[in-house]
Amino acid sequence: MSGGRRVAVVTGGASGIGRATVERLVGDGWNVVVADLNQANGDALVRDLTGTGGTEGADRGQVDFVRTDVSDEGSVEAAVARAQERFGRIDAMVNNAGVGGAFGPITELELEDWEYTFSIVSRGVFLGTKYAARAMTASGRGGSIVNTGSLAGISGGAGPQAYSAAKAGVINFTRSVAVELAAHRVRVNSVSPGFIRTPILGTGVKKIERLLGDVQPWPEVGEPTHVASVIAFLVGPDSAFVTGESINVDGGVTAAGPRVG
Ligand code: NAD
């Protein structure tokens, strides 16, 4: 355990938005447990943040990696326990791990594919919230939980069916749990990214670039750091009275709606 530093667990923290969040929080002085399925990316991140030429400094926090499958209850419980064992506490849980799911007609969607998407996007957020909330309520110190939603959880056209349904669920699950946990001083919020340049978008980035200025008013594709800074705000003291909120980080896509002018 190291001093009174705040401690966060970030699921899906080895890539994209999660990785940018880990980098931001460590830079802000948090100790962070990265909980991700991808061992190689997790190891690389720990190396980058602690190795020679890395970003160590007196005010920076430490980073630890634990291979985690957010669809597995024991695995998620173990990730939260790791934060308490290694760093002595948990103040923030960022339930961010996700998979995109394949586009295709609903008439051809296999039940197995539907359930796979839900097992990560929906079950993963439930399990992360459950075990973080247990630890935070037991400590009496409260805490902050941030769930990664999506533009697809708000708009019908931004993602495949199962992903859109699961992400809509994440946004309202967040509100529901926020109401329940407020008495324990545990805040629960979601961020809904729009089009962000990460591996999940893959070659879709090229398609998104053609939508700039139209579907998306802001003239550039979003970067993982744009979302990470909002997550950092939501886990930190500047958002002390914000709970049950959903913040879109989408370059104005949801604001725009249909364009007639
Ligand atoms: P990414 O592919 O870069 O990162 C996702 C991470 O989740 C990966 O490191 C992956 O290994 C991990 N992961 C996948 N399944 C897991 C599992 N079962 N257990 C643990 N970890 C697992 O993608 P990203 O864009 O950074 O995605 C982060 C979150 O943002 C996801 O929830 C995604 O749905 C959401 N999101 C992304 C965009 C975008 O445009 N990139 C838009 C809206 C929402």
TrEMBL record:
Give yes or no: UniProt keyword Oxidoreductase. Answer: yes
Q: Which UniProt keywords apply?
A: Oxidoreductase
Per the record, the domain of life is: Bacteria
- Kindly give the SUPFAM superfamilies that the UniProt entry links to this protein: NAD(P)-binding Rossmann-fold domains (SSF51735)
UniProt keyword annotation of Transmembrane present: no
Please provide, alphabetically and separated by semicolons, the GO molecular function terms listed in this UniProt record: oxidoreductase activity
Give the protein family: Belongs to the short-chain dehydrogenases/reductases (SDR) family.
Query: PANTHER family this protein is in?
Result: DEHYDROGENASES, SHORT CHAIN, ESTRADIOL 17-BETA-DEHYDROGENASE 8-RELATED
Name of the protein this chain belongs to = NAD(P)-dependent dehydrogenase (Short-subunit alcohol dehydrogenase family)
Q: Which organism is it from?
A: Pseudonocardia endophytica
